[in-house]
Amino acid sequence: xxxxxxxxxxxxxxxxxxxxxxxxxxxxxxxxxxxxxxxxxxxxxxxxxxxxxxxxxxxxxxxxxx
Length: 66
Description:
Elements: E1 5-11, E2 19-23, E3 31-35, E4 43-49, E5 55-61
């Protein structure tokens, strides 16, 4: 992992408890992880940080939405 990434724990949704690397220089305040565990297998699970920095689930995206 380089200086521009950090590991965060995901809360809620299908990837609850996962620890993933995020790019701290990325201007988009969210991540969309390919997941077969959500509502749309093969789609993505969308997470974003709240005001305290906790990364929470927002929703699942269909494969064609990204």
